[in-house]
């Protein structure tokens, strides 16, 4: 078996890291030990709302159990309380940045399998048997979807093996990765609900947004504002990386 990232043969040598992965996923990792060790899972003290690790944040940018960004979001009545919480799995380090670039922009869709066990494990922290949230992937515009051939958020959501409600639409805008931080925050929302959805299905339900990267939180809050008229019980998010 070859590693999905470096294409080296995966050794049969058992390490503690591999045993930990096996105990969570119940199958062998598609990564070699060297590549697996470059995935940095977020741990320790972090922002209550966005999972930003405080270990990588100067004290002056922290407000109690919130990072400064989330504190500012919550100070604005327009945005306060819209997004209950985002859970991110990994630090957005150089290794993951390259993996996601191959996945999203170079059409290497098989790389999504790297994240299967991690997504399912984090999902268990959000859901339970009685209250499984409704899964909603962050959409791409039709133009971007045609360009890439798939929606990375939908692919990540599919790893959870639960029904997916693809109820959002997105108009075509400049790539988020090309925008400056202030441009992302100030941009008009490109999101809307699809027509003829069953609106009462979402009343008093837990909604879970799925995306690849949390950067400023603008995208998830714009979507939360679109979903709020459906009267959900809560809106949370699960993202692969915290940028």
UniProtKB/TrEMBL annotation:
CDD domains: PRTases_typeI
Pfam families the UniProt entry points to: Pribosyltran (PF00156)
SUPFAM superfamilies: PRTase-like
Domain Phosphoribosyltransferase positions: 147-241
InterPro entries: ComF/GntX_DNA_util-trans (IPR051910), PRTase-like (IPR029057), PRTase_dom (IPR000836)
Homology family: Belongs to the ComF/GntX family.
Name this protein carries in UniProt: ComF family protein
Organism: Calidifontibacillus erzurumensis
């Amino acid at each position: 078996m070859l590693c999905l990232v470096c294409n080296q043969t995966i050794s049969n040598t058992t390490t503690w890291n591999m045993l930990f992965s096996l105990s969570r996923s119940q199958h062998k990792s598609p990564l070699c030990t060297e590549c697996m060790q470059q995935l940095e899972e977020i741990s320790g003290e972090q922002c209550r709302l966005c999972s930003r690790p405080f270990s990588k944040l100067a004290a002056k940018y922290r407000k109690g159990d919130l990072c400064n960004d989330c504190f500012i979001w919550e100070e604005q009545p327009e945005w306060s309380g819209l997004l209950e919480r985002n859970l991110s799995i990994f630090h957005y380090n150089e290794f993951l940045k390259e993996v996601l670039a191959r996945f999203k922009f170079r059409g290497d869709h098989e790389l999504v399998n790297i994240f299967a066990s991690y997504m399912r494990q984090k999902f268990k922290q959000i859901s339970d048997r009685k209250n499984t949230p409704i899964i909603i992937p962050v959409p791409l515009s039709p133009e971007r979807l045609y360009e890439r051939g798939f929606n990375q958020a939908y692919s990540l959501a599919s790893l959870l093996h639960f029904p997916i409600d693809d109820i959002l639409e997105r108009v075509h805008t400049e790539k988020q990765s090309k925008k400056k931080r202030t441009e992302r925050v100030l941009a008009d929302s490109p999101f809307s609900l699809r027509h003829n959805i069953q609106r009462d299905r979402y009343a008093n339900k837990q909604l879970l947004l799925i995306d690849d990267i949390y950067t400023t939180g603008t995208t998830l809050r714009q979507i939360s504002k679109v979903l709020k008229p459906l009267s959900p019980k809560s809106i949370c998010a699960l993202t692969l990386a915290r940028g």
